[in-house]
Each structure stands twice: as C-alpha cells, then as structure tokens.
C-alpha cells in the first residue's frame, strides 16, 4: 500500500486537508490522536510524564494539561527532546499497528513534525500543506488566542517553510478558498491512485 505522510506548519490547515481526503474514502491515521492515546491516564507514558514534570502538569480531571505541557517544552529544548524520545517510538509502533489493519490503494498519516523528525520508514511520499508565514501567524492569533510572542516561539520551534518545501514530494497551497483546495486534493487523489498501482 502507498503511504503518504501529510505534514505542514502549525495552522496550515492539515486537519482540513485530511478531512477532505477522508471524504474521498482515503483512510487517515492522525498521529496527534495517537499521541493522546499513548498519554491517557492508564498508559505508561502518562506516568513517566507525570513523574518527570510533576503533578502540576495535570488538569483538574487528572489528565495531562496539554497546554501547560506545550508551554514547558517550547521554553526548554532539552525537555522537548526528552518528551519526543519518550513518545515518538510509542506513536510509531501504534501507527504501524493501525497501518497493518488497513486495506486500501493508499492511506495518509498526518504527522505535524514529519520534517523535523528522523526519516520515517513507514512513509513513501511526503505531502506538504503550505501557507505563507504571515497566514500562519494570523490564524494562530485567532485560533489559539496566543500572544504574538508565543506565536513566534511556536514557529521558531518548527522547521522553516523552506525546509518543509525542500522535503516535499507534493505540495498543496492552502492560502486560497476551500473550492480551490478541493480541486488540488481531487487532482492529487487521482495521482495517488495511479501511483498506488505500483504498490499493490
């Protein structure tokens, strides 16, 4: 099966693109969702994070406070590395298990930090959702009610637009309207169905 890695900078519209592919009956594996599963309170990773960062990393329901955790790791590269080393192998194993259950010409794995991470052996092609940096900033300020300083920190922690585009096999420009986006996705869908014949 052909496996596409879908990535893009924060607030580029990865979720929208994934949903539009899903509407075309393409199986989608969302690693953000898997990340939530591996840090659920009954999982070993949850205990490791709680022990490492302390009780104040939990919310009132005793689940991980993802916003607090994000703030901690964005302010400390060493802590971010520690968390990635803990979670990435678990997420990759879970991804592989889910892939094994899919029967389709091709599927898509949504990996926000695909370009920043080591090469992923599960993926044959990289699809980048691209928007100008100014658009990312504007969307982040509106969506997350973040400050301009926080937005700059978040963007600085990710690969640059140029780095992402350099790794892309395919690019979707998501700076226009939804109809334009759908046209690009339909075109790529047909392209992937053709390419998938080589993986049968």
A few lines on this structure:
This protein is of the alpha/beta class.
What do these coordinates show?
With about 200 residues, this protein is α/β, with parallel strands linked by helices. It has 2 domains: about 1-25 and about 105-200, Rossmann fold; about 30-100. Helix content is about 55%, strand content about 10%. It has 9 helices and 5 strands. Strands 2-3-1-4-5 form a 5-stranded parallel β-sheet, with helices on both faces. Helix 2 (about 30-40) crosses helix 5 (about 75-100). The protein is globular, with a radius of gyration of 17 Å. The N and C termini lie close together (about 5 Å). The model has no long low-confidence stretch (mean pLDDT about 90).
Write the layout of secondary structure elements.
Elements: E1 2-8, H1 14-22, E2 28-30, H2 31-38, H3 44-53, H4 66-74, H5 77-99, E3 106-110, E4 125-130, H6 133-143, H7 148-157, H8 161-167, E5 170-173, H9 178-196
Parallel strand pairs: 1-3, 1-4, 2-3, 4-5
Helix pairs in contact: 2-5
Please supply descriptive tags for the structure shown above.
200 residues, alpha/beta, Rossmann fold, five-stranded parallel beta sheet, 9 helices, 53% helix
Rg on CA atoms, Å: 17 Å
Fraction of residues in helix: 40-55%
Under the CATH scheme, the architecture of the largest domain is 3-Layer(aba) Sandwich
In one word, what is the shape?
Answer: globular
Q: Between the first and last Cα atoms, what is the distance in angstroms?
A: 6 Å
Summarize model confidence as the mean pLDDT. Answer: 91
Give the C-level CATH assignment of the largest domain: Alpha Beta
CATH topology annotation of the largest domain = Rossmann fold
Largest sheet: 5 strands, parallel
Strand order of the largest sheet: 2-3-1-4-5
Which regions are unreliable across 5 or more consecutive residues at pLDDT < 50? none
The CATH fourth-level homologous superfamily of the largest domain: P-loop containing nucleotide triphosphate hydrolases
The count of helical stretches stands at 9
- The helix-strand sequence is EHEHHHHEEHHHEH
Count structural domains.
2
Number of distinct beta strands:
5
* Percent strand: 5-15%
| SS-based class | alpha/beta
